[in-house]
């Protein structure tokens, strides 16, 4: 596995790094690095100083990109998957929720009361799976037909107000291991930022961001289901954003997506411990 950290450095702060490795896209410098590169450490040190002294940041965005060898993929027993996010959320379009059912601290696990309402034309085109910022996952009719053909298990489909799209409901959960690294940024594992605390005392939300590959505790649910979600969440509760479960799938499911050319999936290897 190869792990690349991408940072988008503000134009007016890029000179602080004294490097020519960044690529300017017209608004920010895109900089790729790895943890063993002294530049990675420098990015963290400068960003922490800016946050502490000036209440500002060095970069506008960061992302961890992981690539795998064919051997890695063939030997994987479990995959984590993610997808593209879009707006507006269901609650902005008439979807109702029982917030009293949610965790009083972090807002996780609220109860949906009616069918998912979305704005027509908002779903990303040519995608077989996508999610709102409120973590309402929708799939195409093509996804449903393909999943049924392959005999996939562990989930249901619910109607939405949009023709040819359905809400995906995963029925089984697995627990994340403490080996899964979480935090605010790659350089900050303190579970808080500018007075905001992201680690839920009830255990419903672990922190703001997932920083490592996922590690999950072994259990029979893993071998019996093709789709699973984590029992704990990642993220925060503000505006339309809600803490989200992490999504996992069997190697068979990952192979189905690739073989049938389903669109919208992003896979990483997950580890069973």
Please provide a written account of the structure.
The protein has a six-stranded mixed beta sheet with strand order 13-19-20-5-21-18. Strands 6-9-10-12-11 form a five-stranded mixed beta sheet. It has helices at 38-54, 70-75, 141-150, 220-224, 251-259; strands at residues 2-10, 23-24, 28-33, 59-67, 78-82, 85-86, 97-98, 111-112, 129-132, 137-140, 155-159, 165-170, 173-174, 182-183, 192-193, 196-197, 209-210, 215-216, 227-234, 244-249, 266-272. It is globular and about 55 Å long. A hairpin with a 2-residue loop joins strand 15 (192-193) and strand 16 (196-197). It has five helices and 21 strands. By secondary structure, it is α+β, with helices and mostly antiparallel strands. The model has no long low-confidence stretch (mean pLDDT 95). It is 17% helix and 33% strand.
**Order of helices and strands, N to C?**
EEEHEHEEEEEEHEEEEEEEEHEEHE
State the helix count: 5
Rg (C-alpha, Å): 20 Å
- End-to-end gap: 18 Å
Strand order of the largest sheet: 13-19-20-5-21-18
- Percent range of helical residues: 10-25%
Largest sheet entry: 6 strands, mixed
Strand fraction equals 25-35%
Uncertain residue ranges: none
Mean of the pLDDT scores? Answer: 95
Shape: globular
User: Which structural class do the helices and strands define?
Assistant: alpha+beta
Number of strands: 21
């Amino acid at each position: 596995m190869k792990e690349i950290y991408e940072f988008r450095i503000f134009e007016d702060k890029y000179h602080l790094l004294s490097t020519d490795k960044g690529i300017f896209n017209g608004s920010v410098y895109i900089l790729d690095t790895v943890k063993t590169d002294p530049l990675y450490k420098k990015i963290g040190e400068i960003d922490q100083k800016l946050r502490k002294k000036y209440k500002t940041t060095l970069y506008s965005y960061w992302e961890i990109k992981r690539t795998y060898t064919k051997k890695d993929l063939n030997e994987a027993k479990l995959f984590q998957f993610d997808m593209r996010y879009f707006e507006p959320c269901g609650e902005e379009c008439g979807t109702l929720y029982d917030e009293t059912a949610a965790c009083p601290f972090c807002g996780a696990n609220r109860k949906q009361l009616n069918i998912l309402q979305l704005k027509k034309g908002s779903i990303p085109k040519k995608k077989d799976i996508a999610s709102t910022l409120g973590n309402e996952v929708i799939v195409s009719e093509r996804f449903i037909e393909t999943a049924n053909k392959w005999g996939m298990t562990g989930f249901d489909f619910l109607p939405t107000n949009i023709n040819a799209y359905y809400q995906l409901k995963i029925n089984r959960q697995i627990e994340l291991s403490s080996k899964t690294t979480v935090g605010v940024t790659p350089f900050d594992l303190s579970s808080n930022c500018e007075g905001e605390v992201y680690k839920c005392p009830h255990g419903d939300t672990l922190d703001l961001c997932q920083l490592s590959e996922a590690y999950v505790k072994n259990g029979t649910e893993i071998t019996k289901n093709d789709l699973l979600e984590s029992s704990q969440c990642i993220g925060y509760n503000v505006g339309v954003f809600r803490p989200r479960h992490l999504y996992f799938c069997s190697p068979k499911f990952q192979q189905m997506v690739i073989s049938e050319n389903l669109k919208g999936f992003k896979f990483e290897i997950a580890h069973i411990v």
